[in-house]
Amino acid sequence: MTRKLTLGLFVALLAMGMQSCGDGPRPANKSGHDLWLGDITVPVNAPYKELLTQYDKELGDEGFRIKHNDKGLAVIYANTEAGLMYGTYHMKRLGECGELSKMNDEIVEVPAYKYRILNHWDNPNLTVERGYAGKSLWKWSELPGKIRPEYEEYARANASIGINGTVLNNVNADPCMLTREYLEKVKVLADIFRPYNIKVYLSLNFAAPKHLANLKTSDPLDKDVIKWWNDKVAEIYSIIPDFGGFLVKANSEGQSGPQDYGRTHADGANMIADAVKPYGGIVMWRAFVYAAESPDRAKQAVEEFKPLDGQFRDNVIIQIKNGPVDFQPREPFSPLFGQLEHTNIMAEMQITQEYLGHSNHMVYLHPMWKECLDADTYQKGKGSTVAAETLGKVHGNTAMSAIAGVTNIGDSVNWCGHQLAQANWYAFGRMAWNPDLSSEQIIDEWLKQTFTINKKFVEPVAKMMLASREACVKYEMPLGLHHCFSGAGHYGPGPWDRSSRPDWEPAYYHKAAADGIGFDRTSKTGTDAVSQYHEPLRSLYDNVETCPENLILWFHHLPWDFKMKSGRTLWNELCYTFQEGIDEARGFIYTWESVESFVDPQRYGQVHDKLVRQAKDAIWWRDALMLYFQQYSNMEIPADCTQPQHTLDELRRFRLRISNYETPALDKLPEYNL
Ligand code: GCW
Questions:
Q1: 304 assigned to active site
Q2: Where does 499-566 have alpha helices with state H?
Q3: For 344-360, what is each residue's pLDDT tens digit?
Q4: DSSP H helical segments within 194-222, as ranges?
Q5: Ligand 1 within 6 A of CB of 20
Q6: Using one digit for the tens of pLDDT, what is the confidence trace for 528-573?
Q7: Would you tell me the crossing angle of helices 422-433 and 366-374 to the nearest 10 degrees?
Q8: Would you say the CB of residue 129 lies under 6 angstroms from ligand 1?
Q9: Of residues 354, 444, 470, 584, which has the active-site annotation?
Q10: Ligand 1 centroid vs 305 CA: distance in angstroms?
Q11: How many A from CA of 480 to the centre of ligand 1?
Q12: Cys bridge to 263: 192, 267, 583, 642, which one at CB 3.0-4.6 A?
């Protein structure tokens, strides 16, 4: 490690990883971390900060101003300690990026979203659902007695990018999290995070009254149930006075919810909201609901939540995934963002790469999230972007603006499983602070703070990372295809997979048949999902001539020889788009090799091995999908494309035996020549 360690905590985290070997757990003692911890604490007491004596409305509770005082010294001003802290991190970031000259002008920074929250899908038994970075960071069996240094490092990392809340446990929530025993453990974490302006939240199990108190029901209108929740919430706040509130997955994928008792989502959410209201708590109620019987899963959130608009309490926020199905590499934005007027809404992004190659693939996700936030819902005419909707600007309810990211953090030595995946954690925080920041700016900052400011490294690696999301779309599911994943951990292709539910089978989504491929969501012949979008989008998507080609198979079922804008048949367009993805993934390896001299051997080697696997997986995806589709199209893969290296039968026989809590080892995957 040649770089000095700095406040740019992402430098620090990587540096820490460098002190141990291999991918094992990070060292549990502090000694290895002294340098950066020491460095990080110094500026917090430095004299160039001033709490304002008169509240400055422009800055609010978390913003700051940096300007020169009459002695020519740059000073950070804020209304609160939190504001001073964010200002300090900002100043350090500028320093690390070689941009201190920006302080010649006055800087005013105020976070865009009020609630900037990480969601951990961590279970009490230390598994992490869709977690690809080892086990859970939270060592519940050791708490409250033993405190690991990682807890505070985690808080510093988040503070440096503006995260101010964390939901500690999985939305598929174990009721035990609300027991006194666990609340005492949660308290320890809350105490560690508090100085960093981070509140803790918990996911709740809606059936907790039944599980924990043996009540006969968990009906949200039952008076004993209401009392139980009120008492439980009072207990929580007596232990953690600034507890943030709850995240709820109800009546979704087998989780209990108010509909079990003939009640609505609003009944359920409001009951919890009333309990936390006196303490300033909030309820984030997820809109990720779908039933096996529906002909189109993509429509269900709007169908369930639109009729409830206006019925939710003002401390409830409906948490909506960016896309209408499920965190696919490309989805149109969820139409629910443009359908509610009197209800708080927030976006849920997935930082962990459930559908983007786990921590084996290098995929920089900010461009994907920004595509969603920048998308225009047209709910109140042009400019009603998803960002504006979730910031509360479209309906003038800005007080409850929020955004959530499902984390990619675990106890692996590099925190996120892939050395370059920390960029996604970093990017989520920066985006929540300022959704206008560009993907370029964020990756530039992260690379400079994590590796080196040398342009010869930063420029090619930034270019590679900026291209990676689109490359992943091309090699996994181009042209609007979606959910062609193997059921085994959602890693790798499985277009032929069968399941207990039709909507858990890839064929439900790709609909490949002799007459063509794609999901018909048009108004005349399809499910009419297009009508959940406002004009001009509705018509744009409905009409095959105007539908953007990168979403065409999301909205249309088209014949194999359909003529694309390029003049190619749909079949050939699929083949060549896959090919571009394969070529780009191969190119990432060469880019990385070209910067070898800037990276220490350990990080260099780890990233290199994974990039090689990523390129192999790209060919695997193409082989699996196109050989499978070929059964219906009877068309050939063009001769100038990489030719398949396995037969369809071989690929179908391959079994990846991983659970929803694991990522596959690189040597357990189908072999390919690059
Ligand atoms: O994408 C699906 C995942 C589940 C997850 C669910 C959800 C936590 O496959 O593992 O459960 O989404 O978001 O609730």
A1: no
A2: 506-510, 537-542, 552-555
A3: 999 999 999 999 999 99
A4: 208-213
A5: no
A6: 999 999 999 999 999 999 999 999 999 999 999 999 999 999 999 9
A7: 30
A8: yes
A9: 354
A10: 19
A11: 21
A12: 267
Contacts of 29 (CB under 8 A, 6+ apart): 149
Expressed in angstroms and rounded, the spacing between residue 88 Cα and the centre of ligand 1 is 37
Residue 330: CB within 6 Å of ligand 1? no
Tell me how far the alpha carbon of residue 337 lies from the centroid of ligand 1, in angstroms. Answer: 20
Residue 190 pairs in a beta bridge with none
Query: Do residues 592 and 654 make contact, with C-beta atoms less than 8 angstroms apart?
Result: no
Instruction: Report the residue count for the chain.
Output: 674
- Is the Cβ atom of 127 under 6 angstroms away from ligand 1? no
Q: Are 446 and 426 in contact (CB under 8 A)?
A: yes
Using a pLDDT cut of 90, give the percent of the chain over it.
89
CB 486 within 8 A of CB 338: no
Is this structure's pTM higher than 0.85? yes
Q: How many CA atoms lie within 13 A of 301 on its CB side?
A: 26
326 is catalytic: yes
Specify burial of residue 293 (Cβ count, 10 A radius: 0-12, 13-18, 19+).
exposed
Q: In a mutational test of the pocket of ligand 1, which residue from 120, 326, 351 has the highest number of ligand atoms less than 8 Å from its CB? A: 326
Task: Give the other-Cβ count within 10 Å of 499's Cβ.
Answer: 14
- CA-based diameter of the chain, in Å? 78
Instruction: Round to whole Å and give the CA distance between 446 and 426.
Output: 7
Pocket test for ligand 1, best of 119, 130, 486, 504 (most atoms within 8 A of CB): 130
Q: What is the DSSP string of 592-632?
A: HHHTGGGS-HHHHHHHHHHHHHHHHHHHHHHHHHHHHHHHH
Beta bridge partners, 116, equal 403
Cα of 437 from ligand 1 centre, angstroms = 28
d(CA 52, CA 61) in angstroms, rounded, equals 11
Structure token digits, residue 398: 């800005």
